[in-house]
Amino acid sequence: MERADAGAGGTQADGASVVRPARGTRGSYAKGQAKRQEIVDAALVVFGRHGFHSGSLREIAKRVNLTPAGLMHHFASKEELFTEVLRQRDARVQAAAGDVSEFTLLEQVRKVVAYNQTTRGLTSLYTVISAEATDTEHPAHEDFARRYAESAASASDVLADAQRDGLIRSDIDTAHAARLISAVMDGLQQQWLLDDSVDMTALFDEFVRGYLLDPRVDSGH
After folding, report:
1. For a tag site, which of 47, 60, 69, 161 has the least CB within 10 Å?
2. What are the phi and psi torsion angles at 118 (to 5°)?
3. Where is this region: Disordered (predicted)?
4. Which bin fits 24, alpha (ψ -120 to 50), beta or left (φ > 0)?
């Protein structure tokens, strides 16, 4: 195996030149990443309030003390910035849901509902953008259509397993139930954004007890 050691003169033993990072490169990279994250955080607020189309790069740039041209140094386009905002939003929600090996579907959904009630910015972003994305020309239209379809299919399969195990009612259509869970979550988020006294977690629990759970299992019989 070849040695990669550099000599005192900055060359390898065979005389090949070694490229050393310029002084300050690591610091510059860290600063660039920090500014990039600052831009994403600002964009989350702007897109969450105004949507994709009305949320302007100029306002985002102003919030982070950059010119629009300076912002474009970090993100080549509005679409690229928007994509990163959604990616980070999804990552945070996924982390809040926990590992599928540790929690049931309903436990994961409940954890997300509770998390959403602590993060108004993220909840507003999702609510505004999902409504905008019903427009077939919206840049997130295909993504949101796909995520709703995939989520419904996955949830339906998990609910079917729970139904076979006798954990939820046997007389419900699990495909319909999967869509209803999503609809209840979306509706509660919208109501909470309008009136923060709405207890999303308590209302979601009520929905689960009243619609999904087998009364015999829920009562411990």
Report:
1. 69
2. -105, -5
3. 1-31
4. left
Neighbouring C-alpha atoms within 13 Å toward the C-beta of 24: 1
> Residue 145 CB: number of other CB atoms within 10 A?
13
Q: Measured between alpha carbons, how far is 10 from 19 in angstroms, rounded to an integer?
A: 8
Q: What is the pLDDT of residue 57?
A: 96
Interacting residues of 34 by C-beta distance below 8 A, sequence separation 6+: none
> What is the model's pLDDT at position 217?
57
Which segments of the chain have a pLDDT < 70? 1-26, 216-221
What lies within 8 Å, CB to CB, of 51 at 6+ separation is 128, 129, 132
Question: What pLDDT is attached to residue 214?
Answer: 78
**Which residue pairs, CB below 8 angstroms and at least 24 apart, start in 168-173?**
168/212, 168/213, 168/214, 168/217, 169/211, 169/212, 169/213, 169/214, 170/214, 172/211, 172/212
